[in-house]
Amino acid sequence: MSTTVTGRRSPNSSKNNLHGWAFSAPFLIFFLMFLVWPIIHGLYMSFTGQTLTGANNGFVGFANYGEAFGDPDMWRSLGNTIYFTVISTIPLVLIALVMAGLVNMNLPAQWLWRFSFFVPFLLASTVVSQFFLWMYNPQLGLINDALSTFGIAPVPWLNDPNVAMWSIVIATVWWTVGFNFLLYLAAMQNIPQQHYEAASLDGAGGWRQFFSITLPQLGPTTVLIVILQVLASLKVFDQIYQITAGGPGGSTRSLVQYVFETGFTGYRLGYSAAISFIFFALILLVSVSQIFFNRNRSA
After folding, report:
1. Per-residue model confidence as pLDDT tens digits over 43-62
2. Which single residue of 32, 199, 276, 279 has CA 20 to 30 Å from 234?
3. Cβ(104)–Cβ(189) below 8 Å
4. In the CATH hierarchy, which top-level class contains the domain 65-298?
């Protein structure tokens, strides 16, 4: 005789579900308290005139968003952020690729190369910022001292609006390129050696192998690095705030710093929340665009 299974759940199944919810409860509580609720409360705050002094003008609708879209300081900060993202992403990808290629060539003392390339990424942003503040010092800085030996006049690295952002980019590349280097190196070492052996038998040299085998195989890794780098650069704050504080004349102030200053220096929490959600929408748009681009590229 065959037995039929009824729709009733067994006691063991209900017990297992209860245990699963019990194990998940601590994470869910912290997730709701420190992520979901702040987002909901911040969204509500963006529609109010709330200030840090305690004064609350009540619900103002889309007035904060309208003011933000007409705020030249916000647009300038957003322009600085996009400019930093563009000029930092390119060297962070290219230099990481070159570094990974050098290490992958089986040079002597590979552990030393890997250590020296990756260890700056482990440093705190405050350490890196103080290090480059000394390096960029116009009188005592090592960089200007080295330039003077070649007869080059001292460069006002942090005082010239045309140079200050590039100074931040140099510090950022030195600090964070190690992570991209590690991703590229892992991808290179996963390329089957049979491809290179077959290319060698066909007479392909090192450069030909690199452009015909290595680069195409690194395509998915390059896309991943670009996505991660763009998202990280759009959220830049630490090194800019600690090295230049957004100066000179606001030429390096990022949008995140403008949100911080609006809320905690200008005391306008509602307005800063509105700018935050405009920025969130921009990052979301960039993320979705890159996802669709990658899907179309794969197809």
Report:
1. 999 999 988 887 777 888 89
2. 32
3. yes
4. mainly alpha
Residues 6+ apart with CB under 8 A from 102: 113
> How far apart (Å, rounded) are the C-alpha atoms in residues 223 and 130?
32
φ, ψ dihedrals at 131, nearest 5°: -60, -45
Tokens encoding 102: 């050098």
* Domain ranges (residues) in the chain: 65-298
Q: Which residues share a beta bridge with 59?
A: 48
CA 228, 233, 234, 238 torsion-angle sign: positive
Burial track 259-269 (b if 16+ CB lie within 10 A, e otherwise): bbbbbeeeebb
* Sign of the C-alpha dihedral computed for residues 32, 36, 39 and 44 taken in this order: negative
Per-block mean pLDDT, blocks of 10 residues, the chain (299 long)? 51 70 87 90 92 82 93 95 95 94 82 90 94 90 89 90 94 95 93 87 82 89 91 93 92 95 91 94 86 71
In this predicted model, what pLDDT tens digit does every residue of 71-105 receive, in sequence order?
999 999 999 999 999 999 999 999 999 999 988 88
**111 and 198 Cβ atoms separated by less than 8 Å:** no
> Are the beta carbons of 50 and 64 closer than 8 angstroms?
no
